[in-house]
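=== RUN LOG ===
request id: a7f3
mode: sequence -> structure
chains: 1
length: 63
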Amino acid sequence: MNEKHEHEHKKLQILKLKLSYVLEECDKHIYRMTYATGKIQNFMPVNVEKYDSLTDEEIGHID
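=== RESULT ===
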């Protein structure tokens, strides 16, 4: 493998690692959004009266 090819190979490996990390972060956010959606579906849509009666935990799921 020549030096230029080796350098390009290393750059590609770095990009793959970065992409893998970003996709893992996306998976975490998808899980959290799915979890929160499941928690808030029972009281959505929310209005002022409903919002005032929500617990701190329920408001946390909306946030």
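=== NOTES ===
Residues 3-40 form the longest helix (38 residues).
Residues 25-63 form one domain.
=== END ===
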